[in-house]
Sequence to fold (610 residues):
Amino acid sequence: MSQYASRSSHSLENTLRLKLLAIPGVDPKADGSFVLDIDVCLPGRGVTAIYGASGSGKTTLLRCIAGLESVAVGELTINGDTWHNRQHSLPPHQRPIGYVFQEASLFQHLTVEGNLRFAEKRAHGNEMQFDDIVPMMSLQSLLGRNPDQLSGGERQRVAIARALLINPNLLLLDEPLAALDPKRRQDVLPYLERIHRNAGFPVLYVTHSIEEVTRLADFLLVLEQGRVSVAGEMIEMLSRSDLPLEIEEEMGVVLEGQILSREPRWQLITVSFAGGELQVRDRAGLGAVGESVRLRVLARDVSLALDTQSRSSILNRLSATVVMINQQPAAAMATVKLSVGGSLLLASVAIPSVDELSLRVGQQLIAQIKSVTLLH
Amino acid sequence: MTFSEADWLAIALTLQLASISTILLLILSTPLAWWLATSRSGWRGPVAAVVALPLVLPPTVLGFYLLIILGPQGLIGQLTVALGLGSLPFTFQGLVVGSVLYSLPFVVQPLHNTFASLGTRPLEMAATLHAGPWDRFFNVVLPLSRHGFITASVLGFAHTVGEFGVVLMIGGNIPGETRVVSVQIYDYVEALNFQQAHWLSGALVIFSFLVLLIVYWLQPRQGMGTFAMGSRVL
Fold:
């Protein structure tokens, strides 16, 4: 939108160029020695997770991008629009962002609907419609309530809906689930996944939860003491040696399917998804036939075999096509991206095995899935 | 007949004075309180102290200086005469000026406390929702400060009704122009007309009690602290 800033360069379209030095002064938690020093380019679409320990500068980075924190020196160019450079800095209310704070911040003097309409009235463009967002975030029955009549999860859903209604060019989410207990978190996560799939704008997602990183992120930025320690595509991440171990352990994909049948004797259910069928343990025995479910398959639980001849203890074996092999120099593991029907799977494979199986793109093989987790 | 015609005149004048003063006070105090609550300027302390001066000064001191400054020889007096407004002492306009200054802390302090208790979060939230500075002030700060404004208005009004010293100094005792209820009571007592003094005094006691009761009732449960802070000035 021309009213925000001038186009500076074509090469910067579809890129978030973040170069900034900030010394947050009034933050009571800062001891004065903290400096945020970032110089990175992020993809201009998809979800980028900003991961790091508390105090690593994640929130400060988001606040700088929103214009809520003053940047000492720097340049912010978001998909070709310059928001901040040496000559000028857009005030926060002129930046086309949606912002969700860590603790749900709703206007106490307005109802849920009032909060949403506040954003709708001030939105630029109308791609995000009130009548679409409300059912998407399941807020129909809450519209008349006051913020203090909502649970933590409901408040956060309203805050997310409100940020979407502003029709942002960039969505900033600051640990939107951190203040919720695990149960509530599972209530809100599916909504975030929905945004992830449908969003036409980039999303920066601050979190210190590995599960959220691996379920939502396409790109990962790891901060350590105000500096970037790792930045890269999630798909490349597994094969990098500098990735925090806890993320490597949790890398995987989420599949959506439907319960086909259940086998109470072994507490097993069969779930059909776009790429075939999977047998899943359903310990709680909750899943009813026909119900939609989401499954998580970790890359470290997927191994590859060239044929179905060999007998195996593994229940779930699916024929797959190699889409991409990601192998970084001097790394022990490679990540293999597989297509199973229409679905994507990730497999973590030791480098010697890549040669042994002579893996190449387009190859047909069998993905053996050792373990599948039923979500919610 | 309990109130004489002169009493009714004084009551009407008092209500008129209090209403006009309250409106002017709100217009003046809102930006002043906002500045006090949000500025990081070094002038905050001195300005806050000046605003609070009427709390500790005898009204006669305030009235005395006003008489000098607004008088024909005074700085502002010369200005008002030059502008064709005439000399303000011993006029209703002069009373309004005195009342506004005298009641200023009673309006500024509750507003200051309310604004300070809002914190920065609602404003940041509004900014990220594309609300500019005026939009933020009118659509977020004002509605969230509703109770503070009610407290400030009621206290400002009631305090002006109860003013005596400043009125006597710069207003004198002109029926229909500057003779408010408190001065009327003083006159009755001087004339040993205790019966009439009782009626008017009793009316003021009941009025003041009801006003304070309304303020307490209007406080939201969790917002009692706002008034507790505001009541520092009482």
